[in-house]
Amino acid sequence: MIEWPWNLFLYLWEKGFTLLTDLYGLTLRFFLWNFATQILAVVIAVVALVGGIYLVMIRAVGFEFFPKKMTAKLASVSKCRPAPTCSPPTRWPARLRAPFSMKCQKPPQF
């Protein structure tokens, strides 16, 4: 029952791997063809490196030594504690009942 899907997967995997290796070989042959194509490979690499450094410097991407700073800040809209699911027992001392009976402060209106 599982044999034909597995064999199909293996067949497609091998075909895909062969296609990738052939493409890699063609790419190497192209860039090693003559001096101009070798210079083209070096130019592409240098442009990619300079572009990456530029993106780090303008803080478009983070980097270990230049972490990206978050511009959006999370703000609390209320200064209340979460409401308890039940009221505290009356036999508790007042200092333990106080947090349950705190009134919420309204957030400032902007």
Q: How does this model look, in words?
A:
The protein is mostly helical. The chain is built from 3 helices and no strands. The chain has helices at 3-31, 35-57, 94-97.
Sum this structure up briefly:
The protein is 51% helix and 0% strand. By secondary structure, the protein is an all-alpha fold.
H/E topology pattern = HHH
Helix content: 40-55%
User: Can you count the helices?
Assistant: 3
Main pleated sheet: none
* Number of E-type strands: 0
Show unreliable segments.
none
| Structural classification | mainly alpha
Mean pLDDT: 77
List the helices and strands and how they pair.
Blueprint: H1 3-31, H2 35-57, H3 94-97
